[in-house]
Structures are given as C-alpha cells and as structure tokens.
Design brief:
By secondary structure, the chain is an alpha/beta fold. Helices cover 39% and strands 17% of the residues. Strands 1, 2, 3, 4, 5, 13, 14 and 15 form an 8-stranded mixed beta sheet that branches. Helix 2 packs across helix 16. The longest helix has 22 residues, at 3-24. The protein is globular. The chain binds zinc ion (ZN). Zinc ion is lined by residues 91, 93, 121, 351, 354.
Length: 454
Amino acid sequence: MSRWLRALFAAASLCVASVQAHAAAGQGTHAFVGVDVLPMDRDHRLARQTVVVADGRIIAVGPQDTVEIPADATRIAGEGRVLMPGLAEMHGHVPGGDDPAYVEDTLILYLANGVTLVRNMAGDPSHPALRARIEAGELDGPNLVLASPWLRGEDADAVAREIRAHHAAGFDLLKLGNIPVQAWPRMVETAGQVGMPFAGHIPDGVPLQDALTARQASIDHFDRYVEFLVPPGTDTGERDAGWFGSGWVQWVDRGRIGEAVSRTVAAGTWNVPTLTLVEHMASPESAESMLQWPEMRYVPATERERWRRAKREYAARDTFQPEAAGALVALRRDLLKALHDGGAPIALGSDAPQFFNVPGFSIHREMASMQTAGLTPYEVLVTGTRNAAHALGTPDAFGTIEVGRRADLILLADDPREDLTHVRNPMGVMADGRWWTREVLDARLDRIAERHAD
Ligand SMILES: [Zn+2]
C-alpha cells in the first residue's frame, strides 16, 4: 500500500472510530443492574443494587428487586462488580488550544483512568470554550473546573485588573503564583469582590499563616509548609528555601507540625498534596528507567525529553541533593498524615502532566503514595470523591452515589477498599451521564500510543 493510501485509510478509520466513541458518549438513560455500590458517604458497601441515571443525574438507587428500570434505559450488567463515584484530579492540567489533538488526547487519558473531574490549575483562554464543547457532548472528556491563567500582575492595580478579566472570561477560580507581596491584600480583596476563590501556590514573601488567615481555598503541593516549620529566628544564612522548602528542610522543627495543623483546620483551607510531584524528582530511580513506565507510551516525545532534562537539572541543584530531597519526601508524608489525622481537609491531586505524571495514570500513583503516608485505601478514595465536591464548595453536586448527584461513576471488577490497584483500569467510566466502555477507552488509548510511537 502506498504511503498516500495508508494515510487515507488511517484518516477514514479515525473518523469511524470517533463517530463510534461519540455515539457511545451521548447522555440518556442508563441502568447499572445488580451492582455492589460504594456510595462513599461512609465506609460501607451496598450489595446487589440498581442505579439508574438519566440526563446526567442519578435518579434512583436501591436494592435490585425494588428499582424500576425505565424501558428506554441502556442496561449495564453489574453482577459481581463494584460501582463507585469517579475520581477527581484536583490539581491537573489540560493543555492550551494550539494543538487540538494533544488537548483531546489528554482528556481521554484522564477518562480512561476513571478521572471524571479535573480541576485545571493553570488556565488558557481556550478553556471556557473547551468546557462548553465537552458539556455539549461534542468532545469526550471529564468535567472541568477552570482556574484562571496564572496571576502575573506587576503591582496591585494590574493584579486587580487581571482578576476582573478572568472573572468576566468565565474562569471559576484564580491560580496563584508569584504576585508581588505588596499586591497580596488587593488580590484578596478583589477576589472577594468578584466572588472567586484563590488557590495554588503561596506567593514569595507571604507566610503560610497569612494565606490561611486570608482563607486561601486550597494550598497545593504543601507550598510554604516547610518554611513555617522552621522556627522563627533560625539562621538560614544566604541559603534559598529551594523547591518546596528542600533547601530549609534541615532546620525543620517537627514540634511545629501540630501548630501547622491547627492553623490549617481553623482556616478550613484545603490541601492538595501532589506527593508524587516531589517524589518523582527525589527518587533514586533514573529518568531513563522512569521513562520505561508503561504509561509513558501515551506521552509525546518532547514532553518525555522535558522530564528527563528536568530530573537531571534538579539533581544538580545544591538545595536538592539526595539527603535533603529524601528528608523532604519523608516530611511531606508525615505532614499529610498529621493534617489528615488532625481533621484538615485533603483533596486528591497529582499535578499531571508535570514531571513524569501522565494524566490519569498519575492519580493512581498519587493514591499509592498517600497510602504509603499512612492513609487507608478508603481514606484515600474519600479525598478523590466526596472531598473534591466539598473542596469546590458544592458538596451536593457529585462525589457520592445518591439520588440527585451528577452521574460521575466508575465500574470496577473488585472493591478498591481492599486494594487500591482495583481502581485502575475501570471496566467503564461515566462522566456527566456519558458512558465509555473499557473497549472504547482502550481503542482511544491505542491510537494515542500509535501517534507517539518512536
Ligand atoms: Zn500544576
């Protein structure tokens, strides 16, 4: 076959497959019949239930023999399987609009891993329209919550103008990066006026306690916690605090963790730990070996090369030598456990696609890290389901299996409370009432891998 014919054939089969995927992804009425349900409202499992979904909502949940199945419902066999709410990636990224294929692939990678909501943590002007297309069923993807582009204003006036522009453009929350410390009070004031939460990093020069007092909605990556844990008055000399405090970790007083926890609880500020972000850069595993992980086949070569270079660059930093990097990893795990046990709210997030975090796949690595830190599998699953809805200020919208909740669901072969690996490779994924079978998702994954094959 000539190259030209092959290209034509590939284009034609792409069209057929995409029609099929979209046909499979219409809203409508579905019934999961005879399935065991993990509602995630508390730690229990309801045997042999039927769950009916219509127009994107859960409309009935009950014992199999008591729930009437609408005549037009698509029946999904649930016997011997487990249905739970879909997972939220509360610190994820969706690319900008200049490469539509990359954007669409990223959305599929999330869905294929059971991620039914992404809180996108760095906005692009294309994102509100992208979300509208997903909601209209024109594009396959998870529910999106949209942070604005990074705030970057050089002074308070500029920051205030940016906030109003992001609000008008339809973003849901503000992504905090490094605004000048002098602009902080005005940022807090303006965000309050337009009613947008602010989240992400804590700017340089703003101490943790000020972000908490200002009711920052979420602190991601445990930003500024290390600096708080170093006792005031410690002589840090000229040494930079480094990446998430790696340069100062040697001076941490663990006796201050209790105060960090109580201040966080009092503020009600969420933490999205993104443990894997630091663990991937601190691990002794070589970048070359990490790039052999199975999910790397879905990553463009340019991105893989960026990660490989980044790991080498971090390893050369004098504030990120193995001893400090290892101490930082251990501290972050202990901090997560202390915050969680102390009642501070935690939401699941891995920061995909940063540093070896392949969208969707990385949420499972993050969950494994959280379990290593001492959370039970059930507690980890709560951070990615019910807690996500609470973190977004919409506790009744999704995150549990109850009548009225948005139909964000994953169908599993086994109970993930016994083993978190059971939440990988769901047999089917429903986001906003649209249903994708494993078969459809795998076909899409195969095509993404083909595009990136060397
Ligand atoms: Zn990020």
